[in-house]
From TrEMBL:
The active site is at E181. It comes from Orrella daihaiensis. Its EC number is 2.1.2.11. GO terms for molecular function: 3-methyl-2-oxobutanoate hydroxymethyltransferase activity. It catalyses: (6R)-5,10-methylene-5,6,7,8-tetrahydrofolate + 3-methyl-2-oxobutanoate + H2O = 2-dehydropantoate + (6S)-5,6,7,8-tetrahydrofolate. Binds 1 Mg(2+) ion per subunit. It is an enzyme of class 2 (transferase). Mg(2+) binds at D43, D82, E114. This is 3-methyl-2-oxobutanoate hydroxymethyltransferase. The gene is panB. It is found in: Cytoplasm.
Amino acid sequence: IKRVTVPQLKGCKGQRKIAALTAHSSVFASLMDEYLDFILIGDSTAMVAYGLPNTLSITVEQIAAHTAAVVRATAHACVVADMPFGSYQKTPEQAFENAAYLLSAGGADAVKLEGGEIMAPTIEFLVKRGIPVLAHVGLMPQHVNTMGGYKAQGMDEATGKQVLADAVAVERAGAFAVVLEGVKEELASAISAKLGIPTIGIGASVACDGQILVTEDMLGLNGENVPRFVKRYANLASEVQHAVQRYADEVRAGAFPESKHCFGVKSTTPSKA
Ligand code: KIV
Ligand code: NA
């Protein structure tokens, strides 16, 4: 299989919807690969893999290591690595150094970063130097401290205009697509109609050109407290708990392992070495 390229993702606009999810491990990435257009190693890895309270405390080295794990396990989906908080906001040069590391050490095909008008010069700097950028506007989780929580963005006319201006700015700067997070349908629809690049929605309605969710959320692995925009397509938490409980019960009862799981134990079914 040939991997989906960034120009192919961009070319989906007006042709077909883009389906994306997050991943941080080889196991899950390999299971998802054939069905998705791209896989994001989100900075949400901080929360779903490390138990951190928000996305702020993950490093470029950590994202690169998780990206490499995803790249090794996949052959089809385009692989996009999130730029951690503090790794790109200072200067375009800082952003380039860290984005280049995510491509060279991590093996990512592209990077994602949060910010609209304010990050446009940085996006242009990266793209002109060979680093494809997926932008991210609307609700930006790295702004949790200035927002005082996670709040839908652009709900009134003035802030809606800002989100639209941000989306226009990142397209002009050369982003190949833009994540729209936590914006109302009317705004997502207006932005998707205005832009020539695909919009990837998360909590941004079906008006977007594609969708992304955090895999643990949609598989029911992340507790009951998921945002309202999440649809749970499975309840893997109970599957995992049930399996682990049965295992522990059988270990304590001496029912596992059986002779077929053991080496050098005489049984009717010979064990394979
Ligand atoms: O970190 C993340 O998972 C994201 C998403 C767009 C889901 O940024
Ligand atoms: Na993110």
